[in-house]
Amino acid sequence: MRRFDADPANWREADLERDAEQAAKILAWMDDGQRELDEIIGAGEAADGQVKATAAVDGTVREIVITPRAMRLDSRSLAEQLMLAVTRAQDDAERQSRRLMADALGDLLPDGGLDLPAFEERLGRLLRSFERP
Hints:
Elements: H1 13-38, E1 41-46, E2 51-56, E3 61-66, H2 75-105, H3 116-128
Antiparallel strand pairs: 1-2, 2-3
């Protein structure tokens, strides 16, 4: 994958066409992909499965399950295990979302990898290149 050259004097028509196609693919995926991202639910557990949590991709906790056995823990330990289960659920949702994006957009990203900050920066540059001054 070539590096972005911000100097319009160095742009070739073929590069612009390819970039326009890539931008169209990204934008098309963003419409459909958002629905897929919204459906992701991460799961996490702690205390040997006695505390379970689920979380959406935005980090929102969806469900917490605490078994009667876990209620025997002292309040501090229970709170720690609850936080651990929630963190694991949020991490799982993030992993799933990164995998989904990498699978969907991998061919448009450098080396097929997903470096989200780099991707967002590259997408921003690409979209700005089509703006009129």
